[in-house]
Design brief:
Layout (H helix, E strand, L loop, with lengths): L1 E10 L10 E11 L1 H5 L5 E8 L2 E8 L5 E8 L2 H10 L4 E11 L2 E8 L7 E6 L13 E4 L8 H6 L7 H5 L5
Antiparallel strand pairs: 1-5, 1-8, 1-9, 2-3, 2-6, 3-4, 4-5, 6-7, 7-8
Length: 172
């Protein structure tokens, strides 16, 4: 892939659910995650994910914002499950819902477990300045807020967020 251009948003209500065309459960963990990134020991996160009967390893640059380097390769499912169980510091579980809107597909992640209650819409774009639809259920953009990155939800899950963290944007 090389470069991922992705915008991330909170949602307003659940009207998006009626437009979802499919949903799949996902589990992902990090071989190189938030602790190494925060300590300056890594320039990228390394993720293992299982979803829809497949598995992948993913490397993503450790930069904030909508444009990041990203590389992904398929893995045998059994290997990925063993890696999640034995090599990751924790696992984020979620259901991803696919919602098409005007030629774009919003991927809406409904988190489970310690992150239950958090629902985030992601949209991959062809270029950083691309126009895209803004359905009425699309809320505040959180693309530059690190606390919403999956890699950080393992160390600081949504269930432990303060009321201020749940409501207020962070300084960018």
């Amino acid at each position: 892939m090389g470069i991922e251009i992705e915008r991330k948003f909170l949602l307003i209500g659940d009207a998006w659910r009626a437009a979802a065309t499919r949903s799949e459960r996902m589990a992902q963990g990090y071989l190189v995650g938030a602790a190494a990134l925060e300590a300056g020991l890594a320039r990228a996160s390394v993720r293992v994910r299982t979803a829809g009967g497949g598995a992948w390893i993913n490397v993503k640059s450790a930069t904030l914002g909508i444009e990041r380097q990203e590389y992904e390769a398929a893995l045998p499912v059994g290997d990925a499950e063993r890696m999640l169980a034995t090599l990751c510091d924790g696992v984020v579980e979620k259901v991803r819902h696919y919602v098409p809107v005007a030629g774009f597909t919003f991927e809406i992640d409904e988190f489970l477990g310690a992150n239950a209650g958090l629902i985030v819409a992601e949209l991959e774009l062809p270029r950083a300045d691309a126009d895209f639809p803004r359905p009425p259920w699309l809320g505040r953009e959180v693309s530059a807020e690190a606390r919403y990155y999956n890699v950080n939800l393992i160390r600081h899950p949504y269930a432990h967020w303060s009321a201020a963290e749940r409501e207020e944007p962070t300084a960018c």
